Amino acid sequence: MSIKPLFSLFLPMVLPLLVSCKGGNALVSTEDGDTLHLAYADNLSLVRYHDYVKATVRNPWDTTATLHTYLLVPDSIDLPAYLPEGTVVRTPLCSALIYSSVHNSLVSELGAIDAIAGVCDAQYIHQKELADRIADGRVTDCGIGTSPNIEKIISLNPDGIMLSPFENSGSYGKVGQLGIPIIECADYMETSPLARAEWMKFYGMLFGKEDEANRMFEKTEKEYNTLKSLTANLSDKPKVLVDRLYGQAWYVPAANSTMGYFIKDAGGVNPFDSYDRSGSVGLTGEQVLFNAGDADVWLVRYSQDSDKTMGELALDNAIYPQFKAFKDNRVYGCNTSKVFFYEDVPFHPQWLLREMIAIFHPELSSVEPTSRYFTKFEP
Q1: Cα radius of gyration rounded to whole Å, the chain
Q2: Which of 214, 216, 289 is nearest to 250 (CA)?
Q3: What is the C-alpha separation between 265 and 1, in angstroms, rounded?
Q4: By CB atoms within 10 Å of each CB, which of 46, 174, 250, 324 scores lowest?
């Protein structure tokens, strides 16, 4: 027999031994996957293979590095023999511990509320059905997100833990030692509103609600971009001031922050877009007054039992009545203790955009005011 037929005979047996290994004995699949198109999200990539999905979360604080890699494997099949390096998550999650009210609200809306087995920071959960489940013990309250009750988590034995990472968060202490997959929800580190909302596609995959999540995002994207187009060619754009002093600092939106995008897309001008970065910038009250004293509109987010008034705002700090928006009675408040601002907006940014356009441009009759979040301060 010639050498060529012999080589052909043994090649199928030899080839698997030539591919790279993980940990010295786990063979890595060389199968090409289909990259799923993400139009907005910068810190997430999704690749679908035959029997799993690879989700890669880029480190938002060091964009040259990977924060985490997840391998989403359906629990209806045996674990594939050849998997790349990453945290295996069997899907759909059926008994998850979810730290944030934002993600609890999304999972509930996607129709997977039965998969929420535990929560943290229960006092911030306003969604009625989930709050009722917490109250009667069907969903476990695992304490404060920054210091959860380890004993309760061990007793709960969730099949996944969803939490929001922070810079240099490490391995999450004792929680990270439990052997439970930790899903780092870095969506909040995206800059544009639609980029953050697009993460719902990943979360839908986790809970077996991929189609529902895709439909929800398509609706969100269409509505948001339609609203955005209404302000694209407007020449008269009001200057917009956001929030107020907290202690000695006033945190204003930088140009590439989520609120910075909201202001621009709603046809407004951000007085602080000279800060060409993401996130917020901490300034003194005097610095804000210098840069935005002539702002036409002022949006204030706050949390208290009763709605804040103009008189109360004036008493909060002597600097506030000096702003043009205050003098012109164009101050709008969002009492986050009464409305679901932080739960809604991350995955329904079109709702906030509509309201901001109505406030900034009352001349646009096609955009009806909703007062879902912001209402004008009473005297």
Answers
A1: 25
A2: 289
A3: 73
A4: 174
Contacts of 76 (CB under 8 A, 6+ apart): none
CB 75 within 8 A of CB 90: yes
CA 310/CA 318 separation, integer angstroms = 12
Size of the chain, expressed as the number of residues it contains: 379
Torsion, Cα of 341, 347, 350, 351 (10° steps): -30
Asked if 241 and 298 touch (Cβ cutoff 8 Å), the reply is: yes
Q: Where are the alpha helices (DSSP H) in the chain?
A: 3-18, 101-109, 128-135, 150-156, 193-197, 200-206, 210-231, 258-265, 285-292, 310-316, 324-327, 341-344, 349-360
258 vs 6, residue with greater confidence: 258
Residues 6 or more apart whose Cβ sits within 8 Å of residue 79: 73, 88
Pick from 321, 351, 359, 344: nearest CA to 240? 359
What is the band of 8 on the pLDDT scale with cuts at 50, 70, 90? very low
**pTM of the prediction?**
0.89
pLDDT tens string 243-301: 999 999 999 999 999 999 999 999 999 999 999 999 999 999 999 999 999 999 999 99
At 293, list the tokens. 């004293």
Burial 292-324 (b: 16+ CB within 10 A, else e): bbebbbbbbbbeeeeebebeebeeeeebbeebb
